[in-house]
Amino acid sequence: MRAETDDPLVQVALPTVAEVLDLPAVRVGRPEVLAGREHLDRPVRWVHVSEIPDIAGLLLGGELILSTGIALPDGDDLRRYAAELIEAGAAGLVVELGRRFRSLPPPLVTAMERGGLPLVALHREVRYVKITEAIHTCIVEQQFNALRASEQAHETFTALSVRGASPAEIVDAVAGMTGCPVVFEDLMHRVVGHAAADMPVDDLLRNWEARSRMARADARTAVCGAERWAVTTVEARGETWGRLVLLPSGEPTATQLLILERGATALTLNRLLERNRETLERQAHRSTLSEIIDGRYSSAPDIEARTAALGVPIAQSALIAVIVQPEGGPGGAAEPVAAAARAAGAGALVGALDDRRVGALLALEDPAERPRVLERFARGVRERLGRPATVAAGTTAREVAEVRRSFSEAHQIADAAPPPRNAHHRPYYELPDIQLRGLLFILGDDPRLQAFVERTLGPLLDHDSRHGTGLLDTLRAYVAHGGNKSEAAAAAHLSRQSLYQRLAAIERVLGVGLESADVRTSLHAAIMSLDSTEPSRR
């Protein structure tokens, strides 16, 4: 039972009648409950010592009345006295025996029992000042503790909001302050953030959607469902976009509910600040992808439970790591990439990995579907982005531990792939597609390869730099088309005569004969190596 303070979010846990009767100052009076035993959980907001029979008109509700009974009425007036206390919402009546009554009158006992109001007799004389002092001290301490908890929660979540903390950090803070598992879900009951506390993640998230749909709340903050979850909505300006759920081991305390609501407020601020950057789903996907790639998860069942709660079951699936590198950077690309994955019929975790690339972990039920899905996915990415992009796919992983290797391959493939505006650009690239280019990229930092490039192409690069010519671009087109001059001239947008003149100049500057297949191979390898380390030259 709770009563509100001046702060609408501070709910003070008041002592109950049962807790009051257990105080040492009350126990010395040998209290005996004569009526209303089933209602001893009534909260005690304050204590009044009163001997007047018309005290009910002075009550606000929740008061425990202490009396010696010396001025209590008789007969029907006694029943009326009890009815007025019940109507006023008193917490209970405690009467000390001895001064007037040796035992409490049956009409009073009957009336209090019928009205469900606790009636307690004290069989020994007590000092009421000790009782009121003990109860009021207890109430004030709990109010102070609630206000202190409110202040601490306010400071914590304000600091998180000011520094732009992520939803994951806010959820972690709620779990840390309450000591309970916490889940942040969207309106479709998909988990977009969680902190398991001491509970295994797979236990926390098992069948999450079904369990969450059973926990329906009738108010913004409520304790509901068979598991007695504490739930509060995350909303602003009348728009609700999720729920923050606390899973306590018993009934949640007032302080835990306070922290839950403060956490929801922090998530609201985060949402308002971030709504033009990423959706909650993309944030959750990006965070989960990062943990998988970096190996920052406790076990395969844990990460599988988390991805399943996000709506992307990866257990028993064929997993393909894909890198999407849009021209001009990944700004706003994650959502179109996710839409392309859905259209291709693949479950996918999708999120921006850095300032150049979007990562996607595709989950397929049938590994044989890989070529079809990748083809549809790559074409869907190009259509939805509306700009060129490189799509690179690592080899298929059958376990989550292998995903890191698949992403490493995908990064290497993306680095080695030709630029997206290249005439021979593929919808997507795999390891067999990059072959020599991929090897040269991997060896790009090797001084021996660098020396080879400089020895092979250095004179031509110097010539272009001094004279402003574009002989390197001409040579690139020529070797890319296997020495076919007609195709090279078309690709370089040159007439055949101009191409012949440029090829002659290249032979003169480099001191080689371009009709030699070995020479062309060496030049092609040097150009691919140069392009892999300096993409701007492509």
Automatic annotation (TrEMBL):
Coiled-coil intervals, chain numbering: none
Domain CdaR GGDEF-like: 295-414
Pfam families membership: GGDEF_2, HTH_30, PucR
Purine catabolism PurC-like domain ranges (all copies): 19-139
PucR C-terminal helix-turn-helix domain residues: 471-527
Similarity comment: Belongs to the CdaR family.
Designated name of the protein: PucR family transcriptional regulator ligand-binding domain-containing protein
Source organism: Actinomadura graeca
